[in-house]
Amino acid sequence: MFPLTSVNFLGAVVSVRSLGTTATILVIMAVLQVLFLRTKLGLALRAAADNPDSAAFSAPVGRLLMVGWGLAAALGAIAGALVGPQLTPTPGMLDTALVYALAAVILGGLDSPIRPAVAAKAIGVLENLVSVYVPFIGHDLKIAVPFALIFVILILRPQGLFGRKVVVRV
């Protein structure tokens, strides 16, 4: 999708593929943020996801669910096109990516697409720091860091670091 060349940016060599992937992800995140927070379709999708019974009074929930699934399929296709050339196609090629994605969503919460992205960056930094400064983890057990983070967050703060506690009064 992007060429395999590299560019020198402030003394660091960065591949054009990484820059293109990052730029594509940032554009998609901005479009999703605008879609969900600034349009009637986004409001209807959020209402249908939050409370389908109440949303059925003002919007066709079945069609909104189809739009949501179509949007998810389109985003999955884009993700596959961006990540596919960098990995060997095997049945389990995205297993580690799913671990990191789950950790980012648990840490950042499901309220916004921006917070899990920030959480993913924080997980990456934490993982690399732990692999360097904790000798028994090293490079081989780096995948244990997101698992430990998931465990700690689910025990201490199940709604995520940025999530809000939902109080239901009966």
TrEMBL record:
<feature type="transmembrane region" description="Helical">
    <location>
        <begin position="143"/>
        <end position="162"/>
    </location>
</feature>
<keyword id="KW-0029">Amino-acid transport</keyword>
<dbReference type="GO" id="GO:0005886">
    <property type="term" value="C:plasma membrane"/>
</dbReference>
<dbReference type="InterPro" id="IPR052157">
    <property type="entry name" value="BCAA_transport_permease"/>
</dbReference>
<protein>
    <submittedName>
        <fullName>Branched-chain amino acid ABC transporter permease</fullName>
    </submittedName>
</protein>
<dbReference type="GO" id="GO:0022857">
    <property type="term" value="F:transmembrane transporter activity"/>
</dbReference>
<keyword id="KW-1003">Cell membrane</keyword>
<keyword id="KW-0813">Transport</keyword>
<feature type="transmembrane region" description="Helical">
    <location>
        <begin position="64"/>
        <end position="84"/>
    </location>
</feature>
<keyword id="KW-0472">Membrane</keyword>
<dbReference type="InterPro" id="IPR001851">
    <property type="entry name" value="ABC_transp_permease"/>
</dbReference>
<feature type="transmembrane region" description="Helical">
    <location>
        <begin position="90"/>
        <end position="110"/>
    </location>
</feature>
<dbReference type="Pfam" id="PF02653">
    <property type="entry name" value="BPD_transp_2"/>
</dbReference>
<comment type="similarity">
    <text>Belongs to the binding-protein-dependent transport system permease family. LivHM subfamily.</text>
</comment>
<dbReference type="GO" id="GO:0006865">
    <property type="term" value="P:amino acid transport"/>
</dbReference>
<feature type="transmembrane region" description="Helical">
    <location>
        <begin position="12"/>
        <end position="37"/>
    </location>
</feature>
<keyword id="KW-1133">Transmembrane helix</keyword>
<keyword id="KW-0812">Transmembrane</keyword>
